[in-house]
Structures are given as C-alpha cells and as structure tokens.
Task: inverse folding
C-alpha cells in the first residue's frame, strides 16, 4: 500500500466530545493516532464536553443561541435532534473551508448527518457502527413503549448503513449482523476499538487503596458508565456469591458519567443483596485517575453479556494487565483461561465463581493479566489500528488503491476472535490452521488451568464480512 498524500479527515461526533466514556474516548484516541501519522483531522461535534486534553485535533462545535450546554450524558435527549440538525451545516462548512477528503461518521446519528456531506459535498463516507440500535435503544427508556424503541432501532440498523460507502464495525458479531441486514460483504470491515497502552505504564494503585481504606483488601473493579445495558445488576448478583466465600472482598465501581437515578438504583440493590458494606460506588472519576484505579484492582470485571460491540473498558483492563472476569458476550478478543476467565452469558453465579477463583489463585491471575496485555500489542493498539484505517481511507479516496486493498490490509485482522492453532501450522505457507472439533473451553467453563495450547487471531485479510455473510447463510 503506497503512502500517498496526507489526508484531510472530518470525524462526525454526534455526542459530547471529548468525554470520558465509550465512543467519545475512541473518537479522540483514533483522531490523535491519525494525527501522529501526519494527517489533518477535524471533529464536528456538540457544544458539550469534558476537560480532557486533545493533541493536534481541530474541533468545531455547533452553538445554540441562548441555550447553555448541559452536562455530559449518555443516550437520547430532547436537545440532541437540534444539535444534530446544526451539525449538518457545520459539517458542510468544514468540508468547504478545509478541503476535506473523507468523512468518518461515528454511530447512528452521526451517519445521518454525514449523509449530507456525502450527497452535497460529494465526499466518501465511512460509517463506524459500534453497536446495534435494536438492542441498545430500548435500554434508555426514552422512547415508549419499549417495543416501539425496538422497532425504530431495527429500522435504523437497516437504513443507516446503506447511506455509507463503507461500514466499519467493532466486532465480528456486528459484521455478521450487518451482513444479515443485507449490506454487501465488500463494504464491511472489522476495525475494533483501540487503546493507548502507554497510558497505564506508570500507574500507582497504592494511592487509591489508601484513599479508600482498602489496603490489603481483595479489590474487584468495574469501570465505566452505570447505564442499564452495562448490567451492573448482574455484577452485584455475582458479587453476592463472592462475598459468601470471601467476606473481605470489596467491589469498587468506578463511574465516568453521572447518572443519579441509576446510581441510587444500584446502591439500593447492593443493600438489598446484603453487600452494601462490600461495595463502593464512585459516580464520576476523571480519566487521568483511571490507570491508578485499575492498578489497585485484583480482578477487573465486564458484566455485560450479549454485547455486539467492543467494550472500551475491556481494552483498558487488558492494557493494565489485569486479571479479567467476563461474560463471554462481552469478552471480545479473550479466550477462556488463555487471557481471561469467561463465564456463560447471564449466569451470575458462574461469573461470581470466576471472580472468586481469580482472587484465590493470584499467580495464575497475574499470568492471565500478562497475557491479556500481550494480546493488545500489534492488534488493539491505536498506532496499528490507525494505519489500518488509513488504508481504508485511501481505498475510498483513490479508486486505484482498491485493487491493492484487495490483497489485504496488513494492519487489520480477518477476525478478532481467538482460535486454537494447529501445533504444526507455524511453518505452513498458508498460515495458521484452525483446530478441528469442538472448543472444549467454550463448553466447559469449569476448567480452571492455564491454557497451554496456542491460540491466535486469523491473519490479515481485505475484509471479514464476506466470510461472515457466508457463514450466516449456511
């Protein structure tokens, strides 16, 4: 793939930006990584933001006279459609003033804004899908009845991707979902969320333990939003099982976006489950303190099952070399007893057993955490992913690059699901061969010894979605 000219990119972020959660965090880190490659990156976004530094990225905000920007919140609100309408004009203005080469729209609303840039400014557009709306939209309880929210979500999942030249998805699961919705495989690429590993290099967990009076206490940690789709309720039920077997264990929930109603709901639930004394909720912790908090944790947990996207919190856990307990659905890039402990989806007792097991086997837990951190390198780090995204941009901007891209994108994997590798595959010309037969670790989660067999991600390829679509039709 030739380097070519440096590109001018506009990110459409129909959300508060920058902000210390999910998509805004990924957009910021992706943009900064592209700037490090020498590209010019602009972000058009809402007037709402948090005080988080942004390196080298030009931010353009919409403004609404006589309306003060509110606080950062996740999900739908009455003001968002107004901001989205204003984003259309801001996008067209930025494209015209700065000679933008490509539009990169993140999430559903941003893609609908991006349509106008694609149609009226005639610029190619990538739609970055981080979840499916049919599952997520109903969880906000903004549109009622719930069934209506689900119907609207399904309609958005069908219509929105069709307005883009290319659809990037953050997981194999979402790639298959887009293919099942009728999006041609050649237009789908899997580009997972990334992480800045260096951010966790000099963390100090002792300071956090001292601050909260938890020195010498086994600490289980969750970081992220307290939204319902994160299934904090499952985590609290798992913690009840842990406390029965380890009464000193303490759950520290490190929030990033304030949500008073859910905070009260889950605090009350912890009390009702009899684990109130073993649980501490922190409503909003600054991004700069996240590495120190994770350094204090003995086990980090992803309690979300059936997760079509790629949890950013999971990548933070991996980068911090934490022992991870997760439901399978949320454990993207993980493999049971290779780099994490994975429990069957929705089985809270199994998740609790996994947490307790990791607390009781500290040396094995450290090995899993080290392997999780090693999994990041060259796969989920932003420098690698940004180079892969650069290849996609060039494929859209210059049709001559399409033929080259067909040979494969060296920075992106065919799949981001770990598979067993045949022991003799290392020297074969065709690369790793997937192990035949059932994956016993998927079917017997009770196995609690370190995985010694080799597992790996499939080699790089032009796109996974064609394969996913074929699998979906079988």
Result:
């Amino acid at each position: 793939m030739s380097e070519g000219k440096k590109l001018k990119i506009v990110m459409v972020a129909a959300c508060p930006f920058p902000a210390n959660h999910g998509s805004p965090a990924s957009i910021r880190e992706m943009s900064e990584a592209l700037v490090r490659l020498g590209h010019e990156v602009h972000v058009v976004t809402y007037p709402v933001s948090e005080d988080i530094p942004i390196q080298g990225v030009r931010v353009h905000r919409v403004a609404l006279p006589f309306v003060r920007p509110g606080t950062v919140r996740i999900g739908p609100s009455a003001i968002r459609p107004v901001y989205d309408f204003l984003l259309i004009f801001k996008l067209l203005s930025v494209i015209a003033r700065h000679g933008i080469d490509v539009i990169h729209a993140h999430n559903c609303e941003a893609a609908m804004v991006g349509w106008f840039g694609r149609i009226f400014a005639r610029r190619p557009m990538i739609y970055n899908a981080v979840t499916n709306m049919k599952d997520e939209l109903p969880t906000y309880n903004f549109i009622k009845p719930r069934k209506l929210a689900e119907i609207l979500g399904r309609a958005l999942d069908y219509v929105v991707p069709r307005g883009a030249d290319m659809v990037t998805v953050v997981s194999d699961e979402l790639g298959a979902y887009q293919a099942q919705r009728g999006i041609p495989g050649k237009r789908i690429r899997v580009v997972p969320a990334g992480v800045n590993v260096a951010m966790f290099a000099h963390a100090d967990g002792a300071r956090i333990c001292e601050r909260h009076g938890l020195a010498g206490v086994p600490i289980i940690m969750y970081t992220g939003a307290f939204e319902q789709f994160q299934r904090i309720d499952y985590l609290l039920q798992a913690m009840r099982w842990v406390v029965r077997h380890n009464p000193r264990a303490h759950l520290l929930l490190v929030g990033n976006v304030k949500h008073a109603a859910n905070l009260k709901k889950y605090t009350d639930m912890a009390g009702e489950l009899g684990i109130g004394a073993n649980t501490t909720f922190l409503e909003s912790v600054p991004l700069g303190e996240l590495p120190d908090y994770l350094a204090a944790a003995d086990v980090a947990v992803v309690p979300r099952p059936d997760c079509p996207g790629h949890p950013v919190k999971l990548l933070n856990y991996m980068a911090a070399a934490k022992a991870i307990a997760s439901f399978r659905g949320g454990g993207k890039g993980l493999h049971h007893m290779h780099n994490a402990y994975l429990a069957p989806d929705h089985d809270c007792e199994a998740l609790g057993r996994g947490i307790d097991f990791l607390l009781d086997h500290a040396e094995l837990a450290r090995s899993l955490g080290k392997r999780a951190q090693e999994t990041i390198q060259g796969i989920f780090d932003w420098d690698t992913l940004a180079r892969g995204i650069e290849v996609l941009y060039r494929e859209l901007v210059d049709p001559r690059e399409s033929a080259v891209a067909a040979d494969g994108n060296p920075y992106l994997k065919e799949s981001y699901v770990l598979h067993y590798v045949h022991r003799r595959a290392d020297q074969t010309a065709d690369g790793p061969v997937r192990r035949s037969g059932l994956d016993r670790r998927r079917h017997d989660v009770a196995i609690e010894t370190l995985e010694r067999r080799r597992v790996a991600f499939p080699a790089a390829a032009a796109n996974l979605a064609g394969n996913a679509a074929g699998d979906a039709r079988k």
